[in-house]
Specification:
Distance between the termini: 66 Å
Largest sheet: 2 strands, antiparallel
Order of helices and strands: HHHHEEHH
Mean pLDDT: 91
Helix content: 40-55%
Length: 157
């Protein structure tokens, strides 16, 4: 019999350290996948509204819209472009006015723009402050800003 919390009996206990090391190695290799799975299944789907929003991104309609925007914007971050910087190969398509603030514009191609990772992070932080988007925040009754140039100006300030 093996005594808990060990995984090997006394006779084969010398393999315990090797086994624990291999488990740790596996965990480290799969941690990112587990975190992504948890984010997608728990955080993203924290309520019915968020689940509906997330499901939209898994539709054929979104896939076609996204590709149209990538082609239209030539895979260039539109936020960097405003300040004269060229950021090629940007593959994220973002809602200029967030879906939480304007749910009816989620499929409006004029409310979509290509954005790089750095700008997306800054814009997400700004949206949480300006619109009150995000987990634990309360939506504010503010004027939606659909001009990328104006958003870039506000991101600087």
């Amino acid at each position: 019999m093996v005594q808990y919390p060990n995984h090997y009996c006394e006779k084969h206990f010398e393999h315990e350290a090797e086994y624990l090391a291999s488990r740790q190695k596996w965990f480290n290799a799969h941690r990112s996948k587990a975190q992504t799975h948890k984010y997608n299944t728990v955080t993203r789907n924290r309520n019915e509204t968020k689940q509906e929003q997330y499901n939209f991104y898994r539709t054929r309609q979104w896939s076609h819209l996204r590709q149209q925007v990538l082609d239209r914007d030539h895979y260039l971050c539109q936020y960097c472009k405003v300040i004269g910087k060229i950021t090629p190969n940007s593959k994220t398509v973002d809602h200029i006015v967030p879906v939480e603030a304007q749910p009816n514009s989620k499929a409006d191609i004029n409310n979509l723009a290509v954005i790089c990772r750095q700008c997306h992070r800054k814009k997400t932080d700004w949206e949480q402050k300006y619109y009150g988007c995000g987990n634990g925040n309360t939506l504010k009754d503010v004027e939606p800003i659909s001009d990328v140039r104006m958003i870039v100006t506000m991101l600087k300030g």
